[in-house]
Specification:
This protein is mainly alpha-helical and 381 residues long. The protein contains 16 helices and 2 strands. The structure holds zinc ion (2 copies). The site of one zinc ion has 7 residues, from helix 3 and helix 5.
Length: 381
């Protein structure tokens, strides 16, 4: 971080407005909240509303800014888009056009100097240091065409300051007037809540590239963290997300806490969202197994244990998988052009698929068993 930061600061590229905001705003929010409680008395109301605003804005950043606009993981009708844009603006993280542009670069150039929040700069650089310096002009032209062509996105971008002023500050304060606590609502439900939302989302760029597990890939630094998923409405499954970024889910397993995916799915039942992209579970399992294989192979090779049998088994399982999917595809095609003669053929194909499925299951089980044994062997050797 120090080197990254100094390099930019020395070249006169410090973004003073962002730097002062990031450093002083947390203090102003805390001191202001204490002052407001002393002035208006303590009440749970601003805290409950702060939680509501926090939840809705994080959901808008996660489902809207991130999955809908940055990754096009699903489509949404105009009303849903408008809601995502308004509540996304209420998080005070700039317009979605800016947000998505930088985020797409993060995925394309992850862990390199071109990654805007490159984790090689350390925790503080990835967390917020990158915002304290002005962006290199060479990156400022890469606005995504699909977003430039989206009228609602451009409306939000052009009117961002006004929308943010209303959604971030005026709305919570206006609610505060109903409770006769406008100052408490301004400092707690608005300022303090914004600071909390900011740091929670910054954790995805910092902690989610440092702490947690890597069940799907070790090709980059992204990690899965249940705790961060809890705070970020499901965004914490960042290793999965970097492996399958077009998936509308970040936590693909049923037990993953991902309210964003549940909400997107729920909206799809009423046609508010549609064309949800989801990786088939076979692909997810394949990625997990491949990652496990690579880490066991590394350990075995380091200890000079023969790995050829394991590699052969993996090849066999891969072949079985290919055969299974090819047969399934052919079956689907043939089913479309069904004739009497074809029906008999189809029955035969169905039997072949059943057989291929058994072979695939056996090959994978054999491979998994061997992987487990060799893993134990590698630990003991
Ligand atoms: Zn992403
Ligand atoms: Zn990332």
């Amino acid at each position: 971080m120090k080197n990254f930061f100094l390099k930019h600061a020395r070249s006169g590229q410090l973004n003073w407005a962002a730097t002062l905001f990031l450093i002083f705003m947390p203090f102003i929010a805390i001191v202001g909240s204490i002052y407001a409680i002393e002035l208006e008395g303590f009440s749970w109301a601003p805290w409950v509303w702060a939680f509501i605003f926090y939840y809705v804005t994080v959901m808008a950043i996660s489902g809207g800014y991130h999955r809908l606009y940055s990754h096009r993981a699903f489509k949404a009708n105009k009303f849903t888009e408008l809601m995502y844009l308004l509540w996304g603006a209420a998080s005070f993280e700039f317009s979605v056009l800016e947000w998505a542009r930088k985020h797409r670069r993060h995925h394309a150039k992850v862990d390199t100097v071109d990654d805007p929040y490159d984790i090689n700069g350390g925790f503080w650089w990835a967390h917020m240091g990158w915002m304290m310096v002005k962006e290199d002009p060479k990156y400022q032209t890469g606005y995504p065409k699909d977003l430039l062509n989206n009228k609602l996105v451009m409306w939000q971008h052009k009117n961002y300051n006004m929308i943010a002023l209303v959604m971030c500050f005026m709305l919570p304060t206006a609610i505060g007037f109903f409770y006769d606590l406008p100052i408490s609502f301004f400092f707690i439900a608005s300022l303090l809540r914004i600071i909390f939302v900011h740091h929670v989302t910054y954790f995805i760029n910092s902690l989610c590239h440092m702490v947690g597990t890597r069940p799907y890939t070790e090709e980059n630094s992204a990690r899965d963290s249940h705790i961060l998923a809890l705070l970020t409405c499901g965004e914490g499954y960042h290793n999965y997300h970097h492996k399958f970024q077009s998936d509308y889910r970040n936590g693909p397993m049923w037990h993953n806490y991902d309210p964003s995916k549940w909400f997107i799915y729920f909206l799809s039942l009423f046609g508010f969202t549609y064309d949800l992209k989801a990786m088939p579970s076979s692909e997810i399992r394949k990625a997990m197994l491949k990652k496990q294989k690579l880490s066991v192979l590394d350990k075995l090779k380091a200890k000079n244990i023969d790995t050829s049998a394991l590699e052969q088994m993996y090849e066999k399982a891969q072949e079985a998988q290919k055969k299974f999917y090819a047969l399934k595809k052919e079956y689907k095609l043939k089913k479309k052009e069904l004739t009497l003669e074809g029906e008999q053929k189809l029955a035969q194909m169905k039997a072949n698929i059943k057989q291929a499925k058994m072979e695939l299951k056996e090959a994978y089980n054999e491979f998994k068993e061997s992987l487990r044994n060799l893993s134990i062997q590698a630990q003991m050797a």
